[in-house]
Every structure is written in C-alpha cells, then in structure tokens.
C-alpha cells in the first residue's frame, strides 16, 4: 500500500532546501523610482503608459519625459474621467464617481506587469496613504499604449478577468481571444496600415521593397500582415530583416544598400527605429538614397536626426479633434500643473522653462 511518506536512507545527513521562484530582475524594481497620479472615485480605471523614454544608458531606468505619444495618453484619460464626472460625456454612471490611477512603464520591457502587480499586492509604488484610498476590487479595467505593454499587462488582466484597452496596439496577435480574452482596442489593426502602405507603394511604382521589422509581436505580426496584403497589390517583398542581437541595425542597413531596391518598409518599435536612425547617421551618407516608409508616426524622431537627404513617409490613423477636449486643455491651471508630476515635467520640457521653488 502506498502512502505520502518519503523516507531517506539513514546514510544521508539532514539538509535544508529552499524553494526558488523566478521574479522580476532586481534592477527593474528598486533602481526605477516610479511616479504616479491618483484620482479618488467610487470605481477606478487604471492606466499604464510610457510617459518617459527608457534611459539611454541604463535600460532598467526611466529617462526623459516624452513630448510626443507619451503624456498625451495620460492627459486624454484624465479628460475622459473629468468629462464623465461632470456629465459632459455621452455616457453616464448615474452619480457614481469615476477615479483614475496613472502609472508610467517608461517603455521598459515587462514593467507594466510589475507595476500593476505592486498595486494589487499593496507592495511598493503607492504611498501608504494612497494604498488606503484605493480599493483594488474597484479597479474595473486598465488602459495601456503599445503592443509590448499590452502583452505585459495582459498577464495581470487575464487572471483578473477585467478589460484591457489600447488606443495604439494594432498587432493582429491580439485578435486571438484565447490568449487575450479581455483585450479591446480603439484603433484599426495592422491590415489597415498595410493596405495604405501597399497602395502608396503601388502609386509611386515601388514594385519591389525590403522590410525591416522588430522581433516583438508588433514587428513580426506587422511584417507578416504587410507581406500578405502587398502581394494582393502586386508589390514584391525582396527580403525581410529582423532587428536582433545577431543582426543589428548597421548590418541590416548594409545589406539593404546592396539590394536592387532602396525602398524600405519599417515595422519597428521605438527602440529599434532609434538604432536604425543612429546607424544611418554614422554611415557618412552611404544610405542617403533610401526611401523609408514607416508604419508608425515617428516624424518627430526623424526630425531630430535630419531627414532632408532622403524621402520618408509616415503613417498614422488620423482622428478629428474634439472641441471639448481642446477646451479642457485650455482650462488647465498652474495649480493643475504643480499637482501632477507628469504634467509638470511635460510643461517644463515643452516650454524649456523651470517653475522656481518646485522640486518634484
């Protein structure tokens, strides 16, 4: 008869063993001091965005505040909360006050999951007073920005069975409802951008193109979708290059320069796009004849590196301006700026000034 007793031979001396569970890297946790904002409410919407860039030297630290496609997402969420609570939105909560929690993942891989885990486990991040204010059971959903952030945040929202929404993540991978059962997006997917790029290429007689893509879901999924759509428009993809440790930006650009086509379609994340611009800039003009077609609106980044010597196209799904949102922006006061650490950083960087006597 078998039982649960485990008997060791008497010749083996007693020993103590400890279980070891893998966790997040220590650098990602204690070296990165995260700011946040919190608005009290009866129910709460959480937001985790890349409000800062990752530090250029230390990839587990937050760098400078992002002026484009960063803080604006946080401000848009704050506007939506403000509009609902002031009954100027097209939806109503019948007197229930909506609150918000904004976190900053700084484009650090895996950081959304870590920050959200801190919130639910009452460890780190929030001050003791804010932990008392926030009832985790009343967080009804989360908003995040890009593909990498969705992949990370979904590790939390899937288990809690609460919605995860993104205004920017267009990857076709998120259509898999088994892997992302609670995910929703407010933007059209990769197919829409791929059709637009293909039609542009055809109209300009760019019948042969090369594709450079990132190794994440956004890059791999976008490149695959584009190749399929391009074939329908009779656009031939000569070669695809994935940015990786074994194939860096400089090596890829060198290979593309030897191609019969100098037209390049890019499905790259911000980090890989930066490395490609850097590699191009140190090439002494060798890659100036490239025509680059970006699937993301990296116009401001391109301006920083200078684009006068080559032709570039950038794609972004355009939406109409909301007059009430513009009025909301105009109503922001100095007090609002001082209370919100992200808004303060954004304002001072945008206007290249510093408000005296303030240390945030």
Descriptive notes:
The protein has 360 residues and is an alpha/beta fold. The protein contains 13 helices and 13 strands. The protein folds into two domains: 155 residues, Response regulator (Rossmann fold); 125 residues, Response regulator (Rossmann fold). 37% of the residues lie in helices and 18% in strands. The strands form three sheets. Strands 1-5-2-6-7-8 form a six-stranded mixed sheet, with helices on both faces. The protein is globular. It starts with 25 loop residues before the first helix and ends in a 9-residue tail after the last helix.
Summary, kept brief:
The chain has helices at residues 26-30, 71-85, 111-121, 128-133, 147-160, 190-203, 217-232, 249-257, 270-281, 299-305, 323-330, 334-339, 341-351, and strands spanning 36-39, 43-49, 52-54, 62-65, 98-104, 139-144, 164-166, 183-185, 208-213, 236-242, 263-267, 291-294, 311-314. It has 360 residues and is α/β, with parallel strands linked by helices.
CA-based shape? globular
Helix content: 25-40%
Largest sheet, spatial ordering of strands: 1-5-2-6-7-8
Largest sheet: 6 strands, mixed
Strand content: 15-25%
Instruction: Report the CATH superfamily of the largest domain.
Output: Response regulator
Oligomer: single chain
Radius of gyration: 24 Å
Which structural class fits the helix and strand makeup? alpha/beta
CATH class of the largest domain, named: Alpha Beta
- On the 0 to 100 scale, the average pLDDT is 85
Pattern of helices and strands: HEEEEHEHHEHEEHEHEHEHEHEHHH
